[in-house]
Structures are given as C-alpha cells and as structure tokens.
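fyi for ur records
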Amino acid sequence: MTMDILRPNSLLNRVLPHPIEKVHKAKADIFPLWVAESAEVLIANLGNTNLRLALIYPKRQLEFNQLAGLQRLIGAKLNVPTVLVADDINPKYRSLFVKNRIPYIYKDETIFAPELGVVLNSQRTAPLVFKNVNVNLTDSEIGPFELKLIAAYLTSLLHLENFNLQELSLRLKKT
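which gave:
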C-alpha cells in the first residue's frame, strides 16, 4: 500500500479545497467480511471541516466488477465520496473506471473523481493546452475554482466557444 498520495505536497492535496489533516482506518466491522478481506479503507478528514474522503486500497488483485462493487458499497456505508487507489490495480481497468464514472487515483499522476470535480491525467509529463493557452501544472499551483473550470472543460460540461468571461463577471458582480 502506498501512502504517497497523502503527502502534504501531493497532487491530491493540491486539488482538494482543504488539505488532508487526519487519516484513520475505517472500522472493519461495519462492512461485510469480503470487504475487510479485499481492501483497506482509510478516511481522510479535510482541514478543520466536516468534509471527509474515503480512500480504498485493494489488498489483492480483484476483477473490475468486484472493484466497482467495492467502491459502491463503501461509499453507501460511509456516506462520503470514495476514491479507489489504483496503484496496484490492473492498468486496463482505468479506462473502464472512467467509462463507468468510478473515481480513482493513480500514484501521484492521475486523478479521476468527477463527483469532486477533479479530472487530471499525467500532470507531471504533459502540460494542458486550452485554445492556444499553455497551462503547465508543475510551474504553479492551481486553485480549487480554476481546477473546477479545467475539469468542466475536460469533461465537456463547459464549452469554451460559448464561454464569455465578461458576461460571467457582470453576473458575479450583480450577486
């Protein structure tokens, strides 16, 4: 099990609205026995808020359907957003996770968590390019609002050709 994604300067900590403050193991007795044998569940408290995030570390190789069921069950039992840590999971499952909207994080490079508004892929190796604007994530930090705009663009929820910043600015000033 790798804990690199919990470091203070990790990609996960940079994209979340509050840094991870405390991490503790979820009680195994609230899950069915097969869940406790298949994965370790860590619950991360975000900042000094009531926000929490569950990180699922599979203990052994599981099939895609088992991983999907594991993620759904843990999310329902804990009632918090859950993210699979896919460091030791078969790489061919990553595209299936995206297709089925199953949140995952791979090492300190890729995060797919649409319910958190975060979709970043291989941020260390390739800069993102938006309409002739080059944004290199390794040069400067991106704030949560900027990241949500990038995620909305990458998931086709925001179309830049229809995006008028002046109109948005006027609406924000009126509210």
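Confidence is low (pLDDT under 50) at residues 123-135. thats all i got for now
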